[in-house]
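As a warm-up, study this chain.
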Amino acid sequence: MDNKLKILLFSPYLPSRDTVGCARKIYDFIRLSSQRGHSVYLLSFCSEEDKKRVASISPYCGKIYLEYLKDYRSYPDKSLYFQEIIGDFSRNRTIDILQCENSYLRRYFPAGIGVPSVLVEHEVLSVSFWEKAGFEENPIKKLILYARAVKKSFEERSWYRQFDRIIVFSDADKNTISLRHKTKNIDVIALGINSEEYALSQESEKLYDLIFVGNFSHSPNVDAVFYFCKEILPLIKKNLPNISFLIAGANPPLLIKNLAKFDKNIMVTGYVENLKDSYAKSKVFVAHIRYGTGMRFKILEALASRAAVVTTSIGARGLNFKGIIKIADGKRECADAVIELLGASDKRQELAISGRQAVEKYYDWSKLLDKYEDIYYNLLHSCPN
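Now compare it with the structure written out below.
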């Protein structure tokens, strides 16, 4: 068998280096796979906004097949275009592996895939809906979220059983899928980051005490920032009344934009092209994530940029940073952790250096891609179709 593989990769959004974390994961995976000599053929939905980003991923793909959407808030029930392409690749055996990024894309497959298939499950949505419902105060919205969780759980059970292997980013997700859906063919491979792109520049002037970075199309990010500003920031201000907070990320809703109207020390930037500068100008990264599965690229990015991090147990899922990340689930616990770090520059520096070293050791893509290749070769050996 030729060690150079032909991979058909199906993505729910255009892989890119400057949008959401999972789009960045797919972008880096394709780029590095190409550099190793593998051929990647990309199937992807693409929003009108992302059309301008197609050129950046094109050099790393054997060919790109796109279906355009107005945005990523709604997907078609069917795609004959994608079904035909997947069917042609499968029947003609012109690919070795079909890799699907997110289980809900399984509904676009034709019947009878004749090649080994791998699912990379970025988020177990049934669990995310269920956790989100627990924080919802509106009883009607709560019931809707619980109903969505139940519906999604049935769909996931059907989809998971149709893949030869499943890859998740954390042991928590592996245990959830295994226990809920009696699925055993699961591997854990953490999110990766290209740490070389986060060069260690000279120390910048710290203009902001706190920073949060995240795409606000993802509801856990909206909840994290609003809850922090409403419930935790006032506790911090009793000790540090002039604390400053930079909130960066695309698509902030009015709820988040209005935070800056009521507090002159809060800045909401919206989309930022170069987040490295924002991290460099801030002392502590806070991510009070209360629900959602998967793994947070934003925390890897903060650590690669040598920022001290305060997050929750949920925010730290999949991360091997014991003693490096401050884990604070309660309001008072989070406030105290932030106050402590802002008052101890030596401690922040110590955590920042340790965090960067851990990212290079455990989460650099050059190491993680080996694990993907092992799964592919084992599948091809066991499924010699």
